[in-house]
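Predicting holo structure, zinc ion bound.
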Amino acid sequence: MLRVWRRLLGLNDRTVLEDVEFDQDDEVVVAHVRPKSRWTRRCGRCGRRCPRHDKGHGRRRWRGLDLGTIKVFLEADAPRVKCRRHGVTVAQVPWARHGARQTRALEDTVAWLATHCSKTAVTALLRITWRTVGSIITRVVAEIDSEVDRFDGLRRIGIDEISYKRGHRYITVVVCHDTGRLVWAGKGRDKATVRRFFDALGEQRSAQITHVSADAADWIAAVVAERCPDAVLCADPFHVVAWATDALDEVRRAAWNEARGAVTQRTAPRAKGMARGLKHARYALWKNPENLTEKQREKLAWVAKTDPRLHRAYLLKEGLRFAFVLKGQAGKDALDRWISWARRCRIPAFVDLQRRIVKHRAAIDAALEHGLSQGLIESCNTKIRVLTRVAYGFKSHEALIALAMLTLGGYRPDLPHQQAAR
Ligand SMILES: [Zn+2]
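Done. Tokens:
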């Protein structure tokens, strides 16, 4: 019978199953286990054989995969050993990661689900809290990091900052232009953070980086110049276009406020309709023309008729975007024309934007010349932004970073049955 139980519980060949009992009070299955003698007295952190220290805190339980609707726990002694490198630590067990309160099979399942399902699906199905999910994936990703080389063959990278916790905190992310994978993420947005990435990358591999794309942040440019001086620094086109979208929004808000002011002063129905129309024109103005719905197209035509200045601002945004669609020399020529147009446009937000673009012209030209696959980076960034909202409720930024690495880093754990099939 114990043989069937071994299979049901998915125990590996390093584990001895002593007994299985059904706990009537808690309605849970408790399996009493121990490591085979070859796998006892190993340091929980490095796995090295070491002398036994004491019996620790006695028996411990690890939650495993459910059997149907019944919760399952593995129970075993948790003695401590004295490692030469790590001091006194709880001994390694073959069924769970160090410091975990769940079995490896359950943790891998959590990690797999967290990258495929919603937060509610994971927590309700597995009956664990979102915080626990956070600490599980942090552990799983730490293990993946120790086994794989995320920097292998890294040549062209994008560096960006992403805000989390309602914009008060930031992480800096590094994405590979060739694979679209997230290769590094760290807390903070300053020179020290970017240096931490290059430290992890190492001197030799930093020297192999050929292109770095970033928004025009000086703190990124300064460290790139210091750590990989031969790399071409390119502006991220989607950041530049985002500047234009911001400028356009400033013009739209000003027009809206003006119309609303007219509403309160004269309660003129025309001004009122105008204010409402402008408020709702936001998405029509933001979207790329080819993605507009019929209704948004009409809205845009209405803007052209009622507020020529706002419409001009819209055309300026689109003109800038078009330079990046063209790329190469044609893109640079288009940008020259755009700059002289924006300089004379008499819309302060776009005159300022034009100055900013002239200031960063070298990096923008580099982006036009090298045509880095912006789509990959942009979609990766968009996904990270979604994850920052999903990760809300994790205790630490490490869990957010782990979720991002797990989902976008290209390495995910297999489900337990897939591992067994290998
Ligand atoms: Zn050790």
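The mean pLDDT is 90.
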